[in-house]
Design a protein that fits this description.
The complex is a heterotrimer of chains A (537), B (295) and C (360).
Chain A lengths: L12 E5 L3 H4 L1 H12 L3 E5 L5 H5 L2 E3 L6 H14 L5 H7 E2 L1 H9 L3 H8 L3 H13 L3 E5 L1 H4 L4 H14 L9 E4 L6 H6 L6 E2 L3 E2 L3 H11 L11 H5 L3 H6 L8 E5 L3 H4 L3 H9 L3 E6 L11 E4 L8 E4 L4 E5 L12 H11 L9 H11 L8 H6 L3 E2 L23 E2 L18 E6 L15 H6 L4 E4 L1 H7 L6 E5 L4 E8 L7 E5 L27 E9 L2
Chain B lengths: L29 E10 L4 E8 L2 H6 L7 E6 L3 E6 L10 E6 L3 H7 L6 E8 L5 H4 L4 E6 L3 H13 L7 E7 L8 H9 L3 E6 L9 E2 L17 E5 L2 H13 L7 E4 L15 E2 L2 E2 H4 L2 E3 H4 L6
Parallel strand pairs in B: 7-8, 7-11, 8-9, 9-10, 11-12
Antiparallel strand pairs in B: 1-2, 1-6, 2-5, 3-4, 3-6, 12-15, 13-14
Chain C lengths: L2 E6 L3 H11 L1 E7 L5 E6 L18 H4 L3 E11 L6 E7 L7 E6 L1 H15 L6 H7 L2 E6 L10 H4 L11 E5 L3 E6 L2 H9 L4 E3 L2 H15 L8 H10 L4 H10 L5 H5 L6 E7 L4 E8 L19 H4 L2 H15 L9 H5 L6 H11 L8
Helix pairs in contact in C: 8-12
Classes of the chains: A alpha/beta (537), B alpha/beta (295), C alpha+beta (360).
Chain lengths: 537, 295, 360
């Protein structure tokens, strides 16, 4: 997030896209409500009529995967009504003319046709967003998990820059991050092309710095993305010409055999491994097929930091000793390294953090003893005695000027057709967490949500003779999966929605492997399916 | 209350306050053995049970309308109404529709297996007040189970009651429960009318909602009493219709179903407005219920 | 007539040290992260007993733990017939004699309420009883109510008239001491040399402290008015629906509430044939609280999620037990991040009242 979560309360307009915020980020949703109590307007862009959408002043119910068309329409309307921020564009951005020329080619009627949102509503939303002093954009996986994910994100950035709604307190572009520490994982270099603190592996100076601390030479090229590692193309496997790219894998705290798209392809890839090791706190679906499983300690059994969406690094303190033979992740990794001939000699997580502070400029002040005294510190933080950073891009963008990157609408990888007439959207439920490794073992959470529900619009339900609670098989070109029908107008006619929490209904048997070419983020949010084998109840 | 599981309770520890008399542990189930399983239809089975302890078996009594908390291994507990008449000592019957985890586990039981039960709980039908009256039973689907307990009790004490009419509605013919009993009740002089919402090839009887049978029941609004059980929405429509027909609200009785955990008025799950169904119900007269739209 | 004494503040720690020899001692302790929680004290010299802040949790977890094993169960299989034999082995908790020190009036009142639910309803809860039976309460009146407190409006504080074993009032360098129930009288007698009889000026000081405390509440909350409105008028369905739609479904209010006693019972398998039957806190705001097997839910979560909670506290318990089961401790106001706490409800209902009415 460029802003802090608390700043949202001061916003005048909140534009939320692809986020079921009350369910997935309740602490952020709470700020939306506070802002609305103070008079803020809420615009929600979502194919689903989520609970937040019902509270919204404007709900732009787009067809899945049409964000770019909608945003280009909104921006065209902003230019038409001369609501752009000239000064901001001139002082802080570049490439505006290309952007403007592209927008002049946009036809609002066509945008309305692509998105399914009436032209008038597009204009209204654009006006409300542009006119306010403090408008904030919050987006989530509904924006990124598309083959046009990068273009989607760039379009939201374009919109913010066009109207000058960024680089200030209370206004900006705020991706709501997922798991409590996905931000921290990215910060620590769990990305193919960067070392901790987003320092590029291509930069010799950076490599040199890390090499001195770690005493090893670092690879020059970027690594592989998760998607590439878990989905080795079929042709490569069947040809048997060369040895497969990956022979062994060590997975920690992930359950790709449930969470990755197109599970068929994941299974095929895993089948080629000579060796698989998994560490997890429970025997997940992936751990069940591993050669070696390391029992890991849970969050309550170890100390360390987590970094939240608003870049706040917070210290979590051990509450209980590890249960049974389980060990903290850092212990497992250090022991593995030691036995593989590389001694990682750290006595505590705090000592590891000292090294992070040393080599990671944005984390330079994040010492444990300091975090212990404060309620977390927001990066960038340049030193022990420096305060953190409440909002980003004050005075200038990280890269200098903000660059407009015009984007054009891209149809989803697998549009619906007569054989597969429904667009299946996948997402999350409130009471389950990810692949349910923890939450499905928690009785109250499991009681609240113990069935793989498939949201079907009542009209579709009537047409196909589906009753509430009956079972139905969803079939895509890649697989089939059985769900329990929930008739609800949360989904639009022609759309279906379900979650990926349930191992008994692994929805990723159905999803597509196609991904965004830049970020390699899979298109979890749309695939074409049909319904079969209705069993009444 | 005859079941006294206190014999399972470990002796109390004497503290500085001295020895305390041991109270019985209300959460402790007692083992009961499945003697017989009757398949009512594809989703509904009746389990005839008896306690392992013959003494308990002899002394155990209950009244129509009450329920037991049934335990199944790893499934927790669920409330199940008696479907048998208490007059027939030595065993009791629970009729169960397969709906969730616990009931599915029950459907996997075989004769000779034990389950855990505690009870009986809840306020029964006011059998003494009903005595001398003609009775109209209106049931929907599995809702016939608790009414079967009343009906068989009436047949066991035939002289105490006047005419008996049963109106029974099901969604499809395949949902009908107690088909053999229906036949036997007819032979014993019960006026039985059945209807289904959706007929199939096997069905030659009535098609339509159970409320449509009410005018044919021959029930005299002023003197008869009516007992209604089924899905909440069905109860609402039947009760409303009976009121229109002139039945006083305190002559109409129903039994409600709720999510329950303790069965004894503590856990809070089974609320209906300010009432707790397990303690103040599950049997209510319509005059006690107020708004019935949300049953 | 309550007997009254004085305990010099200097003598508090020595007294607690004596008590600690015979009793488990539980008191509000401020930990190094700045949280004040009721904590079992093993070494009085190593902890900081905190009477300046409201304990973040009530005494509820000591008598009604968040998770408690009710029994173990096992399944035996007959090798020949395959028939299963299913048996239960109850696990009763220990009943160690315990002194609860520094208990606030609202929390004491809450214990009296939960006693009624678990011990005086139609059935008797042996688990609660075991936790509760050897407890002694030394309460402390609140000279300065905390930010969200409204016990004056629920008539459960800031000082108690009854229910405590011993009640302390801070009157400067000493505590004014009242003995209530028999255990408190016994305890005071056993350690009589710590106490002296209260003089007239001590009594005046206590009265003054109680008087001043009443004027220090920062919130004006119309609990009685709302109870009357709810009893007299139609249910405020629109207010309940508006707040239900905002409720974030976290259950925090019920978990933190000292008088929320709803629970669920479930089985935790240990292996294929053995397991524990557990009782766990539950919350009426959860959909699964009322949803039945098969999926029907008599409560519409979208419009009625918080209905039971507020009507139970402010109306049904007044009808059943003669008083609200909200003790005005204000903890749920702190914990609710959806902005649908009981104070907001009370405010909305009382503002919605059309006819002006005098407040008591």
């Amino acid at each position: 997030m460029t802003n802090s979560i608390n700043e949202i309360e001061q916003a005048q307009v909140i534009l939320v896209s692809g986020s079921n915020t009350t369910r997935t980020h309740p602490q952020v949703a709470r700020r939306f409500f506070t802002a609305m109590d103070r008079g803020a307007k809420l615009i929600v862009i979502d194919p689903r009529r989520t609970r937040l959408a019902r509270h919204a002043h404007i709900h732009l119910r787009i067809r899945p995967g049409t964000d770019i068309a909608l945003l280009n329409g909104m921006m065209r309307s902003i230019i038409d009504e001369n609501l752009i921020d000239d000064l901001f564009i001139q002082m802080r951005t570049e490439n505006y003319t290309t952007m403007r020329d592209m927008l002049f080619g946009i036809d609002l009627a066509q945008a309305a046709a692509i998105t399914g949102v009436p032209e008038k509503m597009i204009r209204r939303a654009a006006r409300i967003y542009a006119q306010a002093q403090r408008s904030v954009i919050c987006y989530c996986l509904g924006v990124t998990q598309h083959i046009a994910g990068t273009g989607n994100v760039q379009s939201y950035a374009n919109l913010a820059m066009l109207t000058g709604h960024v680089e200030q307190e209370f206004t900006g572009v705020d991706p709501l991050r997922g798991q409590n520490n996905v931000q921290g994982a990215c910060d620590m270099g769990a990305l193919p092309g960067v070392l901790p603190g987003y320092q590029s592996v291509a930069d010799p100076g950076v490599r040199e710095k890390f090499a001195r601390v770690w005493g090893v030479e670092l690879p020059v090229t970027a690594g592989m993305t998760l998607l590439d590692m878990t989905h080795v193309p079929d042709s490569a496997a069947s040809l048997q010409t060369a040895t497969p790219a990956i022979r062994a894998m060590y997975i920690t705290g992930e359950n790709p055999l449930l969470s990755e798209p197109a599970l068929n392809s994941v299974r095929r890839t895993f089948h080629q491994f000579d060796f698989l090791a998994v560490s997890d706190i429970f025997l997940s679906e992936t751990a069940q097929v591993a050669d070696v499983v390391f029992p890991a300690a849970s969050f309550a059994e170890k100390s360390g930091t987590i970094t939240s969406s608003e870049r706040r690094v917070q210290l979590m303190r051990k509450a209980i000793d590890p249960v049974g033979d389980s060990r903290p992740d850092d212990w497992i990794v250090r022991e593995l390294a030691r036995r593989m001939g590389y001694a990682m000699d750290y006595d505590s997580p705090a000592e590891i953090m000292e090294e992070i502070c040393l080599v990671t400029p944005i984390y330079a002040g994040m010492y444990h003893d300091r975090l212990d005294r404060e309620w977390g510190v927001q990066w960038p933080c340049g030193g022990r005695d420096q305060e953190g950073t409440q909002y980003l891009h004050k005075y200038s963008f990280t890269r200098g000027r903000g660059r407009f990157e015009p984007a054009r609408h891209v149809e989803p990888a697998e549009p619906v057709d007569s054989d597969y007439p429904f667009a299946l959207i996948t997402g999350r439920l409130y009471f389950q967490y990810h692949t349910g490794t923890m939450s499905r073992r928690t009785p109250i959470l499991e009681r609240e949500s113990d069935q793989p529900l498939l949201e079907v619009h009542p009209e579709d339900g009537r047409r196909l003779g589906l009753r509430q609670g009956c079972r139905v098989t969803v079939v895509s070109r890649r697989g089939r999966c059985r769900f329990v029908v929930e008739l609800t107008d949360r989904v639009a006619p022609g759309n279906l929605f379900t979650s990926f929490h349930f191992a008994e209904a692994p929805v990723n048997e159905l999803t597509v492997e196609a991904s965004d070419p830049v970020a390699r983020c899979p298109e979890y949010k749309v695939c074409a399916v049909r319904l079969e084998e209705v069993e009444t109840c | 209350m005859i079941l006294d599981p206190s014999r399972y309770v470990a002796p109390g520890v004497s503290g500085p306050q001295g020895f305390k008399p041991i109270r019985k542990n209300i959460y402790l189930p007692v083992p009961a053995q499945v003697r017989e399983i009757l398949e009512e239809n594809a989703l509904v089975r009746t389990f005839v049970l008896e306690f392992d302890d013959p003494l308990v078996n002899q002394e155990f009594t209950y009244e129509p309308g009450q329920f037991m908390m049934v335990s199944m291994p790893h499934c927790g507990e669920a409330p199940i109404s008696f479907s048998s008449s208490p007059g027939r000592a030595g065993s009791f019957a629970l009729t169960v529709r397969r709906a969730g985890r616990l009931t599915s586990a029950m459907h996997r039981l075989r004769p000779g297996d034990t389950i855990g039960v505690r009870g009986p709980y809840g306020r029964p039908f006011p059998m003494a007040d009903l005595s001398g009256r003609s009775l109209l039973f209106v049931a929907g689907g599995i809702g016939l189970a608790p009414l079967r307990s009343v009906l068989e009790f009436c047949l066991d004490n035939r002289d105490d009651y006047g005419e008996i009419t049963l109106l029974y509605g099901c969604r499809t013919p395949a949902d009908i429960c107690f088909a053999d009993d229906l036949e036997q009740w007819r032979q014993q002089g019960v006026h039985c009318l059945c209807t289904v919402d959706e007929a199939d090839d096997t069905w030659s009887g009535r098609v339509g909602l159970v409320t449509e049978l009410l005018p044919e029941a021959g029930a005299e609004a002023a003197s008869w009493r009516a007992l209604v059980c089924g899905p909440g929405i069905m109860i609402h429509f039947v009760l409303s219709r009976l009121v229109e027909m002139g039945f006083p609200r305190d002559h109409l009785f129903t039994t409600l179903e709720r999510h329950m955990k303790c069965g004894v008025g503590i856990c809070g799950h089974c609320f209906f407005d300010e009432k707790l169904i397990c303690r103040e119900g599950p049997v209510f007269s319509m005059s006690e219920l107020g708004d019935t739209r949300n049953l | 007539m309550l007997d009254s004494f004085v305990l010099d503040k200097d003598h508090l720690l020595p007294l607690l040290r004596k008590l600690g020899k015979d009793y488990r001692l539980i008191a509000p302790v401020r930990n190094r992260h700045g949280d004040t929680l009721f904590t079992e004290i093993h070494d009085l010299d190593k902890v900081e007993i905190d009477l300046e802040h409201q304990p973040q949790s009530s005494l509820k977890p000591f008598f009604f733990p968040q998770v408690e094993v009710l029994s173990l169960y096992g399944l035996d299989r007959d090798a020949v017939s395959g028939a299963t034999w299913y048996s239960f082995y109850p696990q009763l908790p220990e009943n160690r004699p315990t002194v609860y020190f520094g208990v606030r009036s609202c929390d004491m009142m809450a214990v009296m309420y939960t006693d009624m639910i678990f011990l005086q309803s139609s059935e008797y809860d042996v688990y609660y009883a075991r936790h509760r039976e050897n407890a002694i309460f030394i309460t402390i009146g609140c000279n300065r109510p905390f930010a969200n407190c409204f016990c004056n409006a629920t008539r459960s504080g800031p000082f108690l008239e009854h229910g405590f074993d011993i009640q302390l009032t801070d009157i400067g360098d000493r505590f004014f001491v009242e003995t209530g129930r028999a255990r408190g009288v016994r305890l005071r007698k056993q350690w009589s040399y710590f106490f002296r009889d209260a003089a007239e000026e001590d009594k005046r000081a206590q009265f003054q402290a109680a008087l001043e405390a009443r004027g220090l509440f920062s919130r004006l909350v119309h609990v009685d008015l709302v109870t009357r409105i709810l009893a007299r008028q139609k249910e405020p369905t629109e207010i309940l629906a508006e707040l239900s739609a905002r409720c974030q479904d976290c259950g925090g209010c019920a978990y933190i509430c000292p008088t929320c006693t709803c629970f669920t019972i479930h089985d935790q398998a240990l292996d294929e044939d053995r397991g524990e039957r557990l009782r766990t806190w539950d919350a009426c705001t959860f959909s699964g609280f009322t949803r039945m097997a098969g999926g029907h839910n008599p409560v519409d979560p979208e419009r009625q999620r918080i209905r039971k909670r507020f009507l139970h506290k402010l109306l049904h318990d007044v009808e059943h037990h003669g008083r609200t089961s909200c003790m005005g401790c204000g903890r749920c106001v702190d914990i609710c991040f959806g902005g649908v706490d009981i104070l907001r409800f009370i405010e909305m209902v009382s503002e919605n009242e059309t006819e002006p009415e005098e407040t008591p």
